[in-house]
Amino acid sequence: MGENLVMNMESHGFTVSVYNRTIQRVTEFINGRAAGKNIFGALSLGELVSQLEKPRKVMLMVKAGKPVDDFIEELIPLLDPGDIIIDGGNSHFQDTSRRTHYVESKGLLFIGTGVSGGEEGALKGPSIMPGGSEAAWLHVKPIFQSIAAKAQEGSPCCQWVGAGGAGHFVKMVHNGIEYGDMQLICEAYQLMRDGLGMSADEMHTVFAKWNCGELDSYLIGITSDILAFKDTDGTPLIDNILDAAGQKGTGKWTVISSLDEGIALTLIGEAVFSRCLSAIKNQRVAASMVLTGPSAKLNVDKSSFIEAIRSALFASKIVSYAQGYALMRAVADTHEWNLNYGGIALIWRGGCIIRSAFLGDIKKAFDRNPDLTNLLLDDYFRDKIIAEQSGWRTVCAEAIKAGIPIPGMTSALSYFDGYRCEKLPANLLQAQRDYFGAHTYERIDSPRGEFFHTNWTGKGGDTASTEYTIHRRHNSRSPDSLDSIGGK
Q1: How is residue 160 annotated by DSSP?
Q2: Annotated catalytic residue: which of 57, 171, 252, 317?
Q3: Are 18 and 40 in contact (CB under 8 A)?
Q4: pLDDT tens-digit map of 361-409
Q5: DSSP 3-state of 113
Q6: Rg of the chain taking only CA atoms, in angstroms
Q7: What global pTM score does this model have?
Q8: Which of 64, 80, 178 shows the shortest CA–CA distance to 113?
Q9: Exactly one of 3, 178, 187, 398 is catalytic; which is it?
Q10: Distance (Å, rounded) from C-alpha 352 to C-alpha 158?
């Protein structure tokens, strides 16, 4: 990916110097793909720095964690005040916030930037999400916006995101939504494969058709291509791939952040756990021999059920983005970042893995209401999800009856029903907490913020917990946005 970014930069008129700890890689690159281009090799970090114009811009493309910190320590003595260090890897946003403060304390500038699009995107135009030292933005803006993908109207899929770790945070949420999108597509695939008995070629045709409508996206497109691809023996390659998924951790980070903020990120959480479940292949094979259930065959009209699957996929996708944007707003409030939510949708319009026509509608939603607390409350998305509701519910019900696991679609539906429910059973939960732990509760006939404790058994006494914590972090401007409030 680093090589391809270098080739991309050079093709847009920039002169680039490169260094790798494995010197042979530098030599091979300079004498191979980079031959005859404005790309220079360095055999040490010192030589690399000496080749750069001031303010120097050094971009790291290394594994997240300690390698980033190690390179920063090596670079600091070689750089001058105002020089810029850029981390283009998948670092955790809290590490980026820490590094920004540390590098700035040394008189230098730091950018942590998310780069999405894989190797192909790096070469042809990725989505770029920079954050950190804002003073560095003007120096890297011409480079980043030149090499970035362009949306249909020509705007670069790269804008300044915010201070500290904002860039890497937005990239992390992008990856979490990517987990959700992929899980939903896989569930649609399993419903058609196992429930309807469809062949890979038949499913290829369905996904290709979907990619011409509201589901138009990179992931739907490549799914269609994958299903049409044949192995060396002429059979669908997809049928010969082991069903054990890997992950690199960004989805997990997204879910952990949602727990820290008290945001219900249920669909992305299920996508992460589904990968975990897939990984225990041997256990699942053994369990399949002893745990019985329905046959997984659906007794439904095929064509109408395929349309219902489309509805369930689209409606669940809306929920996934609604949850992801709710998390972005909560973390932005915590870190005092002024995120441009519509602008983030534009950054994701091209180059990145979750690019889709759908993102243009998100941009319009935030144009209509920059303070939108949840996408489900936007008129367009409200009308869309309500219109898809019948098919969505049919799919979830039939899948449960047939024993086909679709945790993404069902958790999305439960979130939708919970979010639109005026009265949830949490009153009983609070009574239970007060019964066994004197955690107190609020009453519907008293003002919010006034707390009560009941001696439920007549033996507990009047002592109550001195703190009552409510996780409601949807929007700091909302009167319901309370972190922790004291009470007896």
Answers
A1: -
A2: 171
A3: yes
A4: 999 999 999 999 999 999 999 999 999 999 999 999 999 999 999 999 9
A5: strand
A6: 25
A7: 0.90
A8: 64
A9: 178
A10: 11
